[in-house]
Amino acid sequence: MSWQTGLIKTILDPANLIISTDIAVVIADKYPKARHHYLVLPKEDIASIFQLNRKHLPLLEELHLLARNIIEVRGECFESFRIGFHAQPSMQRLHLHVISKDFVSSWLKTKKHWNSFNTSLFIPYEALYENLSKNDKIERLPKAKVEELLSKPLACNQCEFVAKNIPSLKEHLLQH
Ligand code: AMP
Ligand code: ZN
């Protein structure tokens, strides 16, 4: 399916590269789910986290360095961001999400959007790095586990509030 190669097309246009090194690039997420949302991708054609092995640990370190760089370039503070991978990515080419914790965005529209960043469907960089160091590969979550996480209640990421639907969650997030 061609939509799955959208990121690969995006990084072919130099105008889309906010940062570019020999090893990786940083782009803006086209449908940002927060005030700041960037993607860090390797230039090497690695489809996803499931193609990684221990040899890629230095590459991951480079991706993380660029994640920190883009936060600095934007004059933002590191603590107000989540940096990590989706346990079940949809788009091809390995990509590290760099997303601000406000989650204030008109593109945040569904429970799936929320839970993919705010449950264990989001694997923090450090956790994935450690997992890969130990196991030499990243395992897929069972389908039933993915379904369970996607259907979790809409719990706020900044307080104890649990929203009954997406409009009320979005209204709540604006108050933080
Ligand atoms: P994932 O679920 O980890 O595969 O996330 C893919 C991300 O890519 C999502 O956050 C999308 O908003 C973003 N996205 C989709 N198409 C494009 C594109 N052409 N350029 C930049 N970002 C995109
Ligand atoms: Zn809250």
TrEMBL record:
A Pfam family that the UniProt record links to this protein: zf-C2HE
The keyword Zinc-finger is assigned to this record: yes
Domain annotation HIT: ranges: 4-109
SUPFAM superfamilies on file: HIT-like
Keyword Zinc included in the entry's annotation: yes
Principal localisation: nucleus
GO BP, sorted A to Z: single strand break repair
Protein name: HIT domain-containing protein
